[in-house]
Amino acid sequence: MTDRVHGGMGAAMFAVVLGVFLFLSPAHFLTSPDEELNLRTTLSLLQGYGGAIPSLEGFASKTGKNGHEYAQYGLGLPLASLPWCALGVQIDPTAGAQEQNSLSRYFTPGASMDPVGTKFLRGWMTIFTMILSAWTVVLVFWIVPRLGLSLSNSLWISFLLAFGCYTWPHGRTFFTEPLSAFCLLAAVGCFLKSRESARENGWILCAGIFWAYAVLTRLDSLITAPAAAWLLCIGESGKACRLEVNFKRIAAFSLPWIVVLGIIISYNYIRFGSMAATGYEDQPEKIRFLTPLLAGLHGFLFTPGRSVFLYSPPLILAIFGAGALWRSDRRLAGGVFLLIAGYLAVMSKWQNWAGGYDWGPRHIYQITPFLALLAAAWMGKRSLFDAAWKRIGWMTFGALSCFIQILGLSADSVFIIKWFLSRMLRSFPENSLDAITPYILQMPIYLPQFSSPALHWQWMIAHGPDFLILQAAAEQQGLLLFFAIPLLMIVIGGVVLWRRCRKASTFSTVEKEESVRESS
Asked: What SS3 state is found at 184?
């Protein structure tokens, strides 16, 4: 793909993806306690409380040495979203917004369990992660031509990632995984760019910054260190891999890690008086890896409640693309394999591998764009749309994949599981509820009829999808004007992509004609 054709397509792809995310935004925002704590930490940093937060009755937080509660989650997301949050607080049109967005009122007894901030601010923060997820799709679109994909296949895998995978419903949440996934993918992109640039060490430094920031966002990103070491120290000689130890490259990559690890250790000491204390050790379940590896892998790959392939059907193609990527680029393939394997191995062992009341396999969300790269390697230059039956097949597959994401967006997954739990518990005596609840919560994971897609479908049929545009049409029709913005983004971005595709087709035709003339 020539630069003339590719130029501007990244921005157009971003506009289309973010436009669709905004246009079909759900009307529920930050409904999980994890998101609540991330917002509280962000507001705490913004309003001068240094990360101290009103406690959710001790959930996912620990009492610091100053007597205040601190969330166990990393600083990466609150710090990155700080300017966005500050802007949201300033432009919030809600009556009484200043008081509702002030964290001080939630430190008072009886108010700490109330959701902080206005509905506008909570919705505003989901846009931040939508932006990150849209850029993640753009990064994949930038990387895949380097794997030999044609323009049409590059567009197709990018749209499948955006709208046919877990990226859509989970990429809008204020969890830490979307930022971590973006940083890891950006770091791999910087490694690829370093091969092409005369400023190799500068790009390696950028890779180190992004990878280290993933660790600042989620400490479990440390499990990707072997992948980073592979990309940093392994080269290719023909079809063989060889060790390449370049101390300048290692120093450039390591510098951001030293800074970030220093920040983490210092923040731990400031909060808890111990450099090793993160807050996780204060939780009832502690930090334990007690799940049998095969049981966790079975859960992530095959169960109706957590299978990565059920919630992101296009990623099935990754199984067939692993060999293709290894044959075409062993240096990149080794890093991608180690990153995916690290997450699967460690998260499959964690006692809380299934997560909470989540839609899909949240704890391995970070591997989603990397599985998409493997799927892209399978596509390569294959002609996916050169026959009517292929076009019908791929469009049907894309539509079904998209429908699964619509199910995830159509209702609040936390509410749905609580709704299911309350229905099931009605048939049990009250004195047995505490004992039976953990078993009932396993049913959405292992039984298809109680899985999240089935429950969301039941709720959507009975109550309709919970989309913001539908709520605005029913309650505040004047708000429909705001949806003109994402609609315009979709139209303009779509037109640019279409025109660039036509130009690429023209270039391809000319190149083929010139090749024929030269050969004759």
From this structure: helix
Per-residue confidence (pLDDT) for residue 281, from 0 to 100 = 75
Neighbours of 449 (CB within 10 A): 10
Q: What is the C-alpha separation between 346 and 337, in angstroms, rounded?
A: 14
Which residue has tokens 């049907």? 396
pLDDT digits (tens, 9 = 90+) for 94-114: 999 999 999 999 998 778 899
CB 40 within 8 A of CB 156: no
The Cα–Cα gap between 489 and 500 comes to 16
273: left (phi over 0), alpha (psi -120 to 50) or beta: left
What backbone torsions phi and psi does residue 356 show, to the nearest 5 degrees? -95, -130
17 closest CA partner among 163, 149, 184, 185: 163
Query: Can you tell me the distance from the alpha carbon of 121 to that of 282, in angstroms, rounded to the nearest whole number?
Result: 30
What digits encode the pLDDT tens for the residues 114-161? Answer: 999 999 999 999 999 999 999 999 999 999 999 999 999 999 999 999
Beta bridge partners of 234: 243
DSSP 219: G
- Beta 234-237 vs 69-71: how paired, if at all? unpaired
143-154 pLDDT, tens digit per residue, is: 999 999 999 999
Looking at 167-246, list the stretches that DSSP marks H as alpha helix, in order from N- to C-terminal side. 167-170, 177-196, 200-217, 225-233
Q: How many CA atoms within 13 Å lie on the side-chain side of 193?
A: 17
- Report the distance separating Cα 304 and Cα 444, nearest Å: 8
**The predicted structure's pLDDT at residue 432:** 85
**Nearest residue to 38 via CA among 83, 76, 9, 2:** 76
Is the Cβ–Cβ distance between 61 and 70 less than 8 Å? yes
As a whole number of angstroms, the distance between CA 255 and CA 201 comes to 12
Distance CA 488, CA 494 (A): 10
Q: How far apart are CA 517 and CA 515, in angstroms?
A: 5
For residue range 15-56, list pLDDT tens digits in order.
999 999 999 999 999 999 999 999 999 999 999 999 999 999
3-state secondary structure 124-166: HHHHHHHHHHHHHHHHHHHHHHHHCCCHHHHHHHHHHHHHCCC
Global pTM reads: 0.94
262/260 Cα distance (integer angstroms): 5
* Nearest Cα to Cα of residue 169 among 351, 497, 414: 414
Q: Does residue 5 register a pLDDT over 60?
A: no
SS3 assignment, position 456: helix
pLDDT in tens, 57-66: 888 889 999 9
Q: Name every residue whose Cβ is closer than 8 Å to that of residue 185 and which is 6 or more positions away in sequence.
A: 136, 139, 140, 143, 369, 370
